[in-house]
Design a protein that fits this description.
The chain is of the alpha/beta class and 289 residues long. The chain has two domains: 219 residues, Spore Coat Polysaccharide Biosynthesis Protein SpsA, Chain A, CATH 3.90.550; 57 residues, no CATH class. The protein is 35% helix and 19% strand. It is built from nine helices and 15 strands. α2 links the parallel β2 and β3. It is globular and about 55 Å long.
């Protein structure tokens, strides 16, 4: 069997220390099959804190490419995926999606590869991560909450805790995700209609429909804290107009992308659920004033 060649896809923006720490944790990986190659494709969205320069200095083998300030996570990951295909190096056997604020455990890659083999080698594998204090799972695979089929919110998702064995899920967060080459060629990359949010959920649902996972790895593969809960459109006191501007921006739920997601994955309740987050945001902003 050929040694794995893992193309790591990353997107960064003004998180210099976290990005460097993520790359350092990637360098420390142990327990990999002999001959395993790891190459990193990092797309930096016009960082002003010196991220691309320091990455190039400390990690000269990383493929760093600059992008505009309006290139968010989803688009950055698509650019990185495209560069992995055009690198001119031996073809990759896996993509690894890695957020720039994740610190991997030293055996994270070997655990993900072992999990992929355990589920047949033709499935997406999600690496669950915990908070830096180790107290809770912050990102993982997701499963429908189990409401009846006729319930409009039957598609609400709950996070899966690692159980010591691979667990099937319905979709996933995009923080640490291993995508075998055959799965990538069949399912594709993150859809270009999702600039930032929803691209990981959409990809997970598409993989599931294709019978290619996703599965949650048996245990945590690293640490990553969640974003502040009262930020963006949820920031108290910003007013209804500003809250609606924020939620419909590229960073949160732009209307066209959200409709694509609803139509694909939330039918037949898509027209109702399409309006739901905007109405909730408006009402929350009015109450907080």
């Amino acid at each position: 069997m050929d040694a794995p060649c893992i193309a790591v896809l990353m997107a960064s923006h003004n998180r210099r220390e976290k990005t460097l720490a993520a790359l350092e944790s990637l360098e420390r990986q142990r327990g990999l099959p002999p001959g395993t190659a790891v190459r990193v494709h990092l797309v930096d969205a016009a960082s002003t804190d010196g991220t691309p320069q320091l990455v190039a200095e400390r990690f000269p083998d990383v493929d760093v490419v600059g992008a505009g300030p309006n290139v968010f996570w989803g688009e950055g990951m698509r650019i990185a995926a495209g560069r992995s295909l055009r690198s001119g190096l031996p073809p990759f056997t896996h993509h690894l999606w890695l957020n720039d604020d994740v610190r991997l455990a030293d055996d994270a890659l070997s655990l993900l590869l072992d999990t992929a083999d355990a589920v047949g080698g033709m499935a997406v594998v999600v690496g669950p991560v915990h908070s830096t204090d180790g107290r809770r799972t912050t990102y993982s695979g997701l499963r429908h909450c189990g409401r009846p089929w006729w319930h409009p919110y039957r598609h609400d998702l709950v996070m899966i805790e690692p159980t010591g064995r691979p667990e099937r899920c319905d979709t996933h967060h995009g923080n640490v995700v291993l995508v075998p080459r055959q799965v990538r060629d069949h399912v594709g990359d993150i859809d270009r209609r999702f600039w930032h949010n929803m691209g990981d959920y959409d990809h997970g649902f598409r993989a599931r429909r294709a019978g290619m996972g996703p599965f949650v790895a048996p245990r945590h593969v690293g640490a990553c804290d969640t974003n502040p809960p009262l930020s963006g459109s949820k920031e108290p006191g910003i007013g209804a107009r500003e809250a609606l501007r924020r939620i419909t921006s590229r960073r949160e739920l732009p209307c066209r992308a959200w409709w694509v997601y609803c139509a694909r994955h939330l039918w037949p309740w898509a027209p109702v659920l399409m309006c739901s987050p905007y109405v909730k945001t408006f009402l929350r902003a009015m109450r907080s004033r």
